[in-house]
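Deliverable D5.2: sample structural annotation.
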Amino acid sequence: MERRIRVGSIGWGATSSLWRDLVGGPLVTVAVCESDAALAEGIRDRYRLEGAYTEVRAMLSECDLSAVLIGSPLGAYGEIVRMSLQAGLHVYAVPPGASTHEEAESFAAHAAYTESVGMVGFPLRHAPAHSDIRRILAERPYGRALTARLRWTEPRTTDDFETWLARASMAPIDLLRAFLGDFKEISVRRLVQAAGRYGVIVSAVTRNDTVVTAEITSVGDPPHSRFEVEVAGVGWRAGASNTDQYWLSPPTQPVQFRRVTELSSDPEADSDRTGRRQALALFAEAIFDSRPIADDFTSAAKTLEHVDRILREARVL
């Protein structure tokens, strides 16, 4: 018998890529909640769902659900997570999953008390290219990583510097934490950039003494994120470009390249490449098997705490 998880989807809008990920898999959306009634009803009708709501509390009380997927904020985002956990539901939330690290820690406590799976879906952790790097770092076939370098480019925005930096640093810092663990030292140097562009260089040392340099900047074009990441040890290096190409230079061996998926107009290939489908699959597996999950609210709290430290460092420059 095929296993299914009845899901309520909250605040995702009509994002077609999400709904593709929820068709034919174990996560089956049966109800949708959006602040706009017409939007919610349109999604319900298009995907033949059981219910459409504009109030989260009504959806939670009226629908037979096992989990919720929380997307863009709908009213008080933190209160939606809290209500869902208090209802005993499993929760998948888009990053950062909470407004502060203290709030994320409280959600982790709620999840533990109700024995719910609480996952903050940082998809970069699960992109195929990054999964390869994580495996190498976990297995340590060539010894531990001594250095890591990351270049991350975010779109140019009209936000003030602190708002931009809080958003722009979230994904790369979480990815570095997934690779290397927590930072014990952090310092920030702000870059001087023209035409309203922003930038910082984050220098850090992990608890395993890996030296990390992360350059986080904004540009006008293209209107999406670009990045490169590289980790290195004695005689070896590994890295990824965006989420689709991974490379490894083992000791005394030729460089090995792996193209995870060929760039394509196929939206399903794009979804596989970004890692969100893998993150949702892991969420479902954790529910079925009652297994611990690495990117839970406790981990999100650590990422938020690191971002707060970066903001504090940047403000004094």
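Annotation notes: Residues 186 and 309 are 7 Å apart (CA to CA). Residues 267-271 have pLDDT under 50 and may be disordered.
The annotation will be released with the project's public dataset once the embargo ends.
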